[in-house]
Amino acid sequence: MAGFQLGNVVGLLQTPIVMESIGISGPFVLFSSLGLLWQTTWAYGVTSDPRESPFITKSELQLIQNGKVDTTASSGKLLPVGLLLSRLPSWAIIFANFTNNWGYFILLTWMPIYFKTVSIIS
Question: Strands (DSSP E) along 27-118, which ranges?
Fold first, then answer.
């Protein structure tokens, strides 16, 4: 989660500068372009199995394989949703994500209005 918070800090610091130079649509264009660039880079670099990754060293692969059950022998069945929702840790994760995202998106929703009224950026 540290990258998520760091992105918030950097984004909130860059937004007024971008809004002042480009306008109110500037941050949306900038951040969506960066997101698409990251998604494209990630999609071409990720693999389903660490053995297929060109970016992993042999010692890292050995560490992963020593602590991992072979996934090729799995049945491919997903866990039932009811089983996941019956566990307290699942609800803790859901609650934490809900409250974190709620605060984050409230902040994002009000940010352009704040910059327009307080910072006098049009």
Answer: none
Q: Alpha helices, DSSP H only, in 46-80?
A: 58-66
Q: What is the pTM for the complete model shown?
A: 0.50
- What sign does the dihedral 92-93-98-103 (CA atoms) show? positive
**Rounded to an integer, what distance in angstroms lies between the CA atom of residue 34 and that of residue 14?**
13
Measured distance CA(25)–CA(50) in Å, rounded: 40
pLDDT band for position 88 (50/70/90)?
very high
Q: Could you give the CA distance from residue 42 to residue 36 in angstroms, rounded to a whole number?
A: 10
**Residues 45, 55: Cα–Cα separation, whole Å:** 8
Take residue 112 and report the two structure tokens written for it: 């352009």
pLDDT in tens, 93-107: 999 999 988 888 888
CA dihedral 20, 23, 27, 28 (to 10 degrees): 170
Structure tokens at 40: 């494209």
Contact call for residues 115 and 121 (beta carbons, < 8 A): yes
Per-residue confidence (pLDDT) for residue 120, from 0 to 100: 65
